[in-house]
Amino acid sequence: MYISGIGAISTQSLEGGIEIPSPKEGKVPAIEPDYSTWIDPRLLRRMSRIVSMGVTAAFMALKDVDVKIPDAITTGTGFGCLEDTGIFLTKMVKQKEEGANPTPFIQSTHNTIGSQVALLLGCHGHNQTFTHQSFSFESALLDGKMLLAEDADQNVLVGAVDEITEVSHVLMQRAGIFGKGLAHGEGAFYFLCTAKKQKESYARIINQRTLFKPASLEKEIQLFLSTNKINPTEIDLVLFGGMEQPWDSEADKAIEGIFPVDKIVAYKKYSGEFATSVGFAVWWASSLLKEKMDVPIAVDTMPKKILIYNPYLGHHHSLILLESCRGTK
Amino acid sequence: MVSVVGLGVLSAIGRGATETLQSFQAHQTGIGTSKYLQTVHALPVGEVKYSNQELAEILKCKKNIPRTALLGMLAARDAVENCGFDIHTFRTGFVSATTVGGMDRTEEFFSDFLIDPNAGDIEAVRFHECGKTTQLIAEDLGITDFISTINTACSSSVNSIIYGARLIAQGHLDVVVAGGADALCKFTLNGFNSLMILDKERCRPFDASRAGLNLGEGAGFVVLASEKVLQQTKAHVLGSISGYGISSDAFHQTASSPEGKGSFIAMEKALAMANLQPSTIDYINLHGTGTENNDLSEGTAVKRLFGADMPRMSSTKSFTGHTLGASGGIESVFSILSLINGIAYPNLGFENAIPELGIIPQKEFESGFSNHHVMSNSFGFGGNCSSIIFSKE
């Protein structure tokens, strides 16, 4: 499967490479574009921030590869539309279930983002929304992969979207999600995926795997590589989601047992932590593989094969293997 | 072909096939006044007849987990037990669906939190996200090879069954326990109430006088298996998934298009995949929520697709209420029970046809007819439309 178009709204400005953002009050919010250049302002007024962010990223990905309407849309979001959920819930509790406003309820469902993309494009094709913690985006990506296996002539828009809200930040902080030194991140990423290489293609996704509470992490990562006929020495860069948190110790051990330390980059310093942060890592890896960005560390040459590994809270582990498609057919 | 080899269902009309079919046969609705949901609104609901305490006792599990997880765990365990072989000897996945997840616990937490941001038991919120409910059930079932969760509003759990079937068809897994669960909570009751689509009486799907839906709760799961599993076990095939269709109505965030474009495409895709003519469908389990908009839209699409040759059809929501993210799973179980036993369920509360449609759904419980193909429809907010066809081998 090839990543042939990308739309990304993240902690990074798209000009001038990648840098570590400075957290403010523990948050690294996305740098948002002027949504009104992408969405009719009359419609925009009624959209929540996460929906504007998601819809715009989807439109960016389509424009990137000059596709008007995709054949299918599949979206991953760990927490869905938290802002509207919070608004509706707060009012419901404060007003003791009286005088509820339907608008935030309507926009609170997780599938609002993907549905709005379809609605604005008039896309009647396959449309799904996955919401499974850090497997949300991975599930959507697998949905896309299966769609392309079912019909190689279509294109699929695969997304990862999550937002920071005031309430969710307080709650996640109290729940200890950010451990030590991790900032709360957010972002919207859509990838137009195709079965065949396009001239615009960024990278090829060789394979992916999700591991829920695996018995042996190192063994599973080794197995994933060998199944895909990749020797660990062929991996030029590992975008690693671990951040030396108490729950990361096994993941640290596993990854450092397989790869030299200088090939491992902790990507969450750049993206912040959120359920669909792997969307950020795929955007970054794809940009590197297309040579649209400087390499982040002292590797000898532009990377040709990148492994993304996200060990989310010690129980949800996901692997995505990408390679450069320059010079291939 | 992906086969269904196990069923588990829990709704306002009972737990498991026997209780459920008895309720249908007796025209006994599960909709009534809520006993466990604490709300200021006096609205009829399809509540499961067990408290959280009772569910936890049956399950021998912690009682402080969300009600969605308790309901889901019971139905999922029943489905796994029903399939009669050890699912753990295969590559097994769990794909669930929910729209409220742990919202009931979050609601409790918010009463304290809104007074003081440092108050409230933060452990309650840990269960908030939809995927957490799935995780709790997967851990209970001992499934680790693959887990995922879908939330496409009211079509969520038919989509998890379709996703599971595709994972097997493409060789990613051998067995998938798929379906969904949703509990009644104040959030959805107030949400649907604010949209003014809740009927103050028992709902009357496809009736001219219909005035909205009743919310319900429950869980429905199926065990799906590959051909390899059938060869290696004594699994009893209950039915197979012969076709499905997923589409987007792309009309409005909460309303269906008047012509039912999304639902028409979903049903048409399902028939095409199953390589079936509309006339071969023996029973349709309609989405039929009882709202003005859904029934007219769905009925228009059904009429266009099936023409004068209408199969038996009914909505079961006047028995269970609309169980949102669980409805596709629950109604898939109903559909397979219909297939096995040649049953068409009564469309309780129907008196007069919608004038624009003239569709007369199944009025009485009927059993023993020759049933080869059953279609089940699920449509959700945001235009997420899905249709699935279960067939005898």
What does this protein look like?
Chain A has helices spanning 41-44, 49-65, 82-94, 102-106, 112-121, 136-150, 166-174, 217-227, 249-258, 268-271, 277-289, and strands at 2-9, 27-28, 72-76, 126-130, 155-162, 184-185, 187-194, 203-212, 237-240, 264-266, 305-312, 316-324. By secondary structure, chain A is of the alpha/beta class. Chain A has a 10-stranded mixed beta sheet, sandwiched between helices. Chain A has a two-stranded parallel ribbon with strand order 2-6. In chain A, strand 9 (237-240), helix 9 and strand 10 (264-266) form a beta-alpha-beta unit. Chain A is globular, with a radius of gyration of 19 Å. With 393 residues, chain B is of the alpha/beta class. In chain B, strands 1, 2, 5, 6, 7, 9, 10, 11, 12, 13 and 14 form an 11-stranded mixed beta sheet that branches. In chain B, helix 2 runs parallel beside helix 3 (67-83), helix 3 (67-83) runs parallel beside helix 6 (130-141) and helix 10 (261-274) packs across helix 11. The mean pLDDT of chain B is 97. At the A-B interface, helix 3, helix 4, helix 5, strand 4 and helix 6 of A face helix 4, helix 6, strand 6, helix 7 and helix 8 of B.
Question: What's this model, at a glance?
Answer:
The complex is a heterodimer of chains A (329) and B (393). With 329 residues, chain A is α/β, with parallel strands linked by helices.
Instruction: Return the string of H and E elements of chain B.
Output: EEHEEHHEHHHEHEHEEHEHEHEHHEE
Number of DSSP strand runs of chain B? 14
- In terms of DSSP E residues, the strand content of chain B is 15-25%
Supply the number of helical segments of chain A: 11
Shape descriptor of chain B: globular
Estimated share of beta-strand residues of chain A: 15-25%
Which ranges of chain A are low-confidence, i.e. pLDDT below 50, for 5 or more consecutive residues?
none
Largest sheet report of chain B? 11 strands, mixed
Radius of gyration of chain B: 19 Å
Shape of chain A: globular
Structural class of chain B: alpha/beta
Which stretches of chain B of 5+ consecutive residues score pLDDT under 50? none
The termini of chain B sit apart by 9 Å
Computed CA radius of gyration of chain A, to the nearest angstrom: 19 Å
The strand line-up of the biggest sheet of chain A is 4-3-5-7-1-8-12-11-9-10
Which chains make the largest contact? A-B, 60 and 64 residues
The H-and-E topology of chain A, N to C, reads as EEHHEHHHEHEHEEEHEHEHHEE
